[in-house]
Specification:
alpha+beta, Archaeosine Trna-guanine Transglycosylase, Chain: A, domain 4, 2 domains, 6-stranded mixed β-sheet, 3-stranded antiparallel β-sheet, 10% helix, globular, disordered N terminus, disordered C terminus
Length: 261
């Protein structure tokens, strides 16, 4: 199965869990593919699509007796926002500074429906939060799906193994060997190791660059006057620099946190 034409009118956005080394490879545009186990494993592959035998139908190879397994990650043109380990290091009203495991930080807008009340610019260092708990507004990485296909994990080529972002020790190690080790590290304990050669979704993607805010526009619409966070913006945002007043650590306000082409 290969979906190559983006259907932008029906494009959807879904979360994607990713480990730290794979996040860094994606940010460097080294990793442009990801393989994910098809669950449940298909009983039949027909014209590139996976099918599961319908339990209320007799055994056979007629596709009408099978149910197609949809790809939970979407199709060409859809977007994936990456979930990774993270922690907020500061908050001023609805604006957070987010820290990531590689030491980088970014400023994000949690919206007026943020998870906690204002900390008035206080700096704090909570525990690292697991990737599964990352909200959309804290994600720094958005991907657009270029194509989706189905294959056995052992069908991967050397070129595709490199596109998976594997570390080949400066080219000293064989890419397929490195990918096999990476695959087992993540999937062997779940019963889908390299030796089992499971069917997988092969998702080819491209990284979208974040938007740069237009500095001639106001940061955000103000909340309703009866909102508990409706503190006048002038009381904490400098009119010239557009940065918070009296904060020990710089917080740059993002106008449009979403990705751009």
């Amino acid at each position: 199965m290969t979906d190559t034409k983006a259907q932008m009118t029906d494009a959807k956005e879904r979360p994607l869990l990713m480990q730290g080394d794979m996040v860094r490879a994606t940010l460097a545009d080294i990793k442009t593919q990801t393989r994910r186990v098809i669950k449940p494993q298909p009983d039949l592959i027909s014209e590139g699509y996976p099918y599961r035998h319908a339990p209320d139908e007799p055994e056979g190879y007629d596709t009408e007796r099978y149910k197609r397994i949809p790809c939970p990650y979407g199709q060409a043109g859809d977007r994936l926002w990456v979930r990774e380990r993270w922690r907020p290091s500061a908050r001023l009203e609805r604006f957070y500074e987010i820290e990531y495991p590689d030491g980088t930080t970014r400023e994000a807008d949690a919206g007026w429906e943020g998870p906690s009340p204002s900390l008035d610019g206080a700096i704090y260092q909570p525990r690292w939060k697991p990737s599964i708990h990352m909200p959309r507004w804290a994600s720094r990485l958005t991907l657009e799906i270029v194509s989706v296909r189905v294959e056995r994990v052992q069908d991967i080529t050397e070129h595709d193994a490199l596109a998976e972002g594997v570390d080949t020790n400066g080219g000293e190690d064989w890419p397929l060997y490195c990918f096999g080790k990476l695959w087992d590290r993540i999937n062997a304990k779940r019963g889908f190791g390299w030796a089992e050669n499971p069917w997988v979704w092969v998702i080819v993607y491209r990284r979208l660059a974040p938007c740069k805010p237009p500095h001639d526009k106001p940061p955000h619409d103000k909340p309703p006057h009866d909102s508990p966070q409706s503190t006048p913006r002038a009381s904490w945002l400098d009119a010239e620099t557009r940065q918070p007043r009296g904060v020990g650590e710089r917080l740059q306000v993002l106008y449009h946190p979403g990705p751009c082409e």
